[in-house]
Amino acid sequence: MRLCNAASEWEGLDPVYTFEGEEVTWHRDADGFRLPTEAEWEFACRAGSAAPQYGPLRDVAWTALDGVRSPQEVGAKLPNLHGLFDTLGNVWEWCWDVWDPEQSDDVRVFRGGGFSDDAWAVRADTRRGASARSTHADVGIRFARSSS
């Protein structure tokens, strides 16, 4: 979220998030970069497809089938119909949503599957979560912006 704000400021946009201790507030009227919601992420990933993958995984996603040991350069596989690369595979992507608000507001969702995941896990409807302060070799970020 701090990276989103830094990128926003770099581009001359209004930062989306404010921080008060561990509390984060999303200012929905700001025009800067932010994490997508799960619904936005899934819409962008599916690109009009109702299938769990928008194409054959070998063609569109880095998974355990490829035998790679780290994230790969974006754009080496085919994009989805929105022209977005690597929405499936390569790295999971953080979303704004909390995993289970009834349990904890610290565990955020990430979506999409990673380079070391089995093919069954690399789907538009698969979700994983972790503490917002955690780091993982197979989790990254995709910025979103609201239309003004």
Structure in words:
With 148 residues, this protein is α+β, with helices and mostly antiparallel strands.
Point out poorly predicted stretches.
none
Q: Give, in spatial order, the strands making up the sheet with the most strands.
A: 6-5-4-7
Name the average pLDDT. 93
Oligomer: single chain
Outline? globular
**Helix content bin:** 10-25%
Can you tag this structure with a few keywords?
two-stranded antiparallel ribbon; 4-stranded mixed β-sheet; 3 helices; globular; 148 residues; 8 strands; alpha+beta
What's the gist of this structure?
The chain has helices at 2-10, 38-46, 57-60, and strands at 17-20, 23-26, 33-34, 92-100, 104-111, 127-131, 139-140, 144-145.
Which helices and strands appear, and what pairs or packs with what?
Layout: H1 2-10, E1 17-20, E2 23-26, E3 33-34, H2 38-46, H3 57-60, E4 92-100, E5 104-111, E6 127-131, E7 139-140, E8 144-145
Parallel strand pairs: 4-7
Antiparallel strand pairs: 1-2, 3-8, 4-5, 5-6
